[in-house]
Write a structure and sequence with these properties.
five-stranded parallel beta sheet, single chain, alpha/beta, 9 strands
Length: about 160
């Protein structure tokens, strides 16, 4: 998993990185994180498309977190954004860029673990399936391969890109 952390407070950014790394280590998930102290530095990060998750401060000099989030979403549409801020008043604006969550810095030790639990579930559960039972066998069909289902008396027909 590739993670970005961007906060103009270098001490807080390093603390966030440590919290995140410890959480993933406890679950034996390998993580590569990049810590930046400005939006410009983050945007200059090589291979931005490899990152799945970004924790962004909102109130930063130069490029603020909201502008940065919009730019990141244009470059990496699948990126999950989590805003971390000392100010609650920016929360609503965060959702205009499809932020996954908005966390307050003062509550970070309490709220970050639940946020990471939910994020991991969302990132790993992208391939939902339909379980089909037929002749005592089970077959998992990815939902994104199903066009439609048709009921014919007591039989369900599944149509799609199914091998």
């Amino acid at each position: 998993m590739h993670i970005l952390v961007c906060d103009d407070d270098a001490v807080f950014a390093a603390q966030m990185d440590e919290y995140i790394s410890e959480w993933f280590r406890a679950r034996e998930i390998q993580v590569q994180s990049t810590v930046c102290t400005s939006g410009e530095q983050l945007l200059a990060t090589p291979e931005l498309g490899h990152y799945q998750l970004a924790f962004l401060d909102v109130d930063m000099p130069g490029v603020n977190g909201m502008v940065l989030g919009r730019q990141l979403k244009q470059k990496c549409p699948g990126l999950k954004l989590v805003y971390v801020s000392a100010y609650l008043e920016f929360a609503l604006e965060g959702y205009t860029v499809n932020a996954y969550r908005y966390l307050l810095k003062r509550d970070i030790a309490r709220t970050l673990p639940k946020c990471l639990d939910d994020l991991l579930a969302a990132l790993t559960d992208q391939r939902k399936t339909l379980t089909v039972h037929h002749n005592r066998t089970e077959t998992e069909i990815p939902l994104d391969q199903i066009y439609y289902l048709e009921s014919d008396l007591r039989q369900i027909n599944v149509y799609g890109d199914i091998a």
